[in-house]
Amino acid sequence: MKKLFVFALAFFLASCGQQKKTDEQEFQTAMDSLQDAGPKIDENLVNGILQQIPSPLEIASILKESGSKYESSILNSEDNLSKYNTNFSKALNLGVFGTDLGYTNIYEQSKDGIKFLSAIKSLANDLNIGQFFDIETIGRLASNSKNLDSLLLITTQNFNDINGYLQNQGRSKISVLLLTGGWIEAMQIICQAATKNTKNKDLPEKIGEQQIILGQLVLLLSFFEKEEDMASLLKDLRELENAFKGVEITTTYKESTMKIVNGVAVITDNSTTSIKITPDDVKNITQIVNSMRNKIIN
Amino acid sequence: MRKIALLILISLGAASSQTMAQCNPDNFTTACIPKLATGFNFLKSYKIDGDGGAKEKVEYSYVFTKGTQYMINICADGSATDGIIISLFDSNRNRVASSKIDNQVVSAIAYPCSATGIYYIQYTFDKSAGYCGGSALGFKR
Questions:
Q1: Best interface-test mutation with A: which of B2, B19, B65, B90 has the largest number of A CBs within 10 A?
Q2: Please, what are the domains in chain B?
C-alpha cells in the first residue's frame, strides 16, 4: 500500500511539475512584462479591440485589384534595421516590415519579400518572439511563385500567433505597436497609390473608410498614454484623426437576404455605405501619414 | 494510510476526467483553416469554448470592408457543427447573417460586405454536446 501511495504522490508531483514553467522562462516573462506592460491596464479590453484591426493584406489586395502597379521603392529598407534600438521602434518596424512582406506577396513579388525576412527575424528575436517566425519555411515558399497561397497563410498565421502570445503574456503594448506600425505602412502605400493615380475613384474611398480603424487605434494607444513614447505616437494619431474630420461615412441598414447554396449560407447584404472624402482630405491625410511613417522608419 | 492513498487516487481520477472534458479549440481552429473555400485568404481563427454550457455565447469583432467577401466557418467534434451557430451583427447590433436558415444549420457563411464597419461574430449553442469548436475567417476580393 505504501508503494501505491508513493507512486500516486510521485505521479501527482510530476503532473504539477509539467505545468510549471521553468524559473528561467518565468524570469524572462517577468522581465518582458516589466519592460513592455507599463501601468496596469485592462488586457481583456485591449485584446478585444486588437482583434478587430484588419490585416494589411486586405489593403494590398484592394490596391492590386484597383490596377495600382507594384512599387518596391515605397517600401521600407532592411538597411534601416540598425536604427531601431528600442523595443518601441523594433515593434513598430516589425509591423512595417510585416505589411511590406504582405504587399510583396500579394503582388507575387516574393523575391523582394525575401529581402525583409532577415530584418523581420532580427526584430522578432530582439522582442523575444522570434520563435513564432518560421523563416526557413517562409523563405522556401517565397522562392517559388506557385506557393503564394501557402506563403500568405503561413505569414498570416505567424503574425496571429505572435499577437496571441503577446496578449497571453500581458505584453499587449508590443502587439498594439506591431499593428499600428503595420497600419501606418499600409496607409502610406495606399496614399502613395492614390496620389499617383488621381483618376481612380475607389482609392480615396478606401482611404476614407480607414477612419474607423484609426478610431480603434487611437482608443488602443490611449490606454498607454502615460508612457512617453506611446503618448507621442498617440499625439500624431490624433493629428491624423483631425485630418479625417471632413470624411463622412454614412451607413444605411437594410435587412439581408440569406439562402443555402452547397451547404454554405450565402448572404446578400442589402445595407450600404457611402463615403465622402475630398481631394484636399486625401492630400492632408497623405502628408500626415508620410510624416508619421518617416518618424517610424528613420 | 490506505484512506489517504485512496483519496489521492480519487482526486487524480477526478482531475484527469476534468482534463479530458476540457475544451481544446486549437485543434478545431487548425482544422478549419484549410476548409475555407478556394480563393479565400485566411485572416483570423477563433476559439469557441462554451465552458461546458456555462456560456451562452462566444463573441469576437472585426472591421469588415465594403467590396470584400468574407467567409466564416465552424469546425467541431462529432456532427459537422455540433449545434454551434454563427451569427453576424453590424455595429448597431442588427443581425446581417446567420448559419441557421429555416431551421437548417450549415457549417459556413459567405458574406459579401457592402457596408464598412465593426462587425460582431457571435457563436451560440443549440443542443450542442461539447460546447467546443473552432472557426476561421477568410476574405477575397
A1: B65
A2: 24-140 (2.60.120.380)
